[in-house]
Amino acid sequence: MGEIKPLSELKPGQKGKVVKVAGSGATHRRILDMGVVPGSDLEVERVAPLADPIEFKLLGYHLSLRKEEAQNVQVEIS
């Protein structure tokens, strides 16, 4: 089993599998609706200055999350 880190700590080019999406409310639901669900594979594409936002590729799409949102997504690094 690989190391588990928040999505906000991954560097460009790193790949992983979503393990857990923490949080609640509308933001949590929006993240899940975008396809960021446990078992999904993703790859970090770019991290903006000050790490906000983080752009990643998931299910063939390019998505962005703010740093505070990405901290709620736990990823197993592959």
Characteristics of this structure?
single chain; 78 residues; alpha+beta; SH3 type barrels; six-stranded antiparallel sheet; 6 strands; 17% helix; globular
Give me the secondary-structure category. alpha+beta
Number of strands: 6
Q: Let me know the CATH homologous superfamily.
A: Ferrous iron transport protein A (FeoA)
- CATH topology category name: SH3 type barrels
List the helices and strands in order. Answer: EEHEEEHE
- Taking all Cα atoms into account, the compactness measure Rg is 11 Å
Task: Output the number of helix runs.
Answer: 2
* Overall average residue pLDDT: 93
Number of domains: 1
Helix proportion range: 10-25%
The largest beta-sheet arranges its strands as 1-6-2-3-4-5
Largest sheet: number of strands, sense, barrel closure: 6 strands, antiparallel
Strand percent estimate:
35-45%
CATH class descriptor: Mainly Beta
- Model regions low in confidence, pLDDT < 50 over at least 5 residues: none
Shape: globular
End-to-end C-alpha gap: 9 Å
- Using the 3D structure, state the CATH architecture: Roll
